[in-house]
Amino acid sequence: SFSKNFGLYNERVGQLEFTVNDSAMTAVVRSQMEIIVRQTWSNPPAHGARVVANVLNNPALLAEWYENVKTMAERILSMRDELYKKLRGLGTPGSWEHIVKQSGMFSYTGLNKRQSELLINHYHIYLLRSGRINMCALTTKNVDYVAAAIHEAVTSL
Q1: Residue extents of the structural domains in the chain
Q2: What fold does the segment set 73-156 form as a domain?
Q3: Distance between CA atoms of 126 and 119, rounded to whole angstroms?
Q4: Which of 48, 85, 88, 150 could form a disulfide with 13 if both were Cys (CB 3.0 to 4.6 A apart)?
Q5: What's one Pfam family the UniProt record gives for this protein (predicted)?
């Protein structure tokens, strides 16, 4: 999906591919995919696809996009590292290495439903009740607050 990588959330830009070893199966898969496409997004907007095509086909824009993606990935990694260090520094019970070992925009914190609800309802830190949190929401200005809230949730519940 290019929707997240290009910030085109309402455009749903992406590609779906299947590799099939049997020509008879190709027709079956194609038939099923055509049904799904018709039911799901029969006539999607073309704006997002045009933006992506323009960037991917322009060497200067493509290089700039790669640099932007690299910058964001590095920022997410640094925020993961900061959160890990803060939790360890607070002496928060548990192993928090999973935060730095995971990759991507989201992290499974290991918090349970009650702990997650405390973060949501009391600290206004929004994550899924499963403990899954968007690491892009962490900044140098709020990582101390988030770490302290997680510490409180883990030690009090």
Answers
A1: 1-57, 73-156
A2: Aspartate Aminotransferase, domain 1 (3.90.1150)
A3: 7
A4: 48
A5: Aminotran_1_2
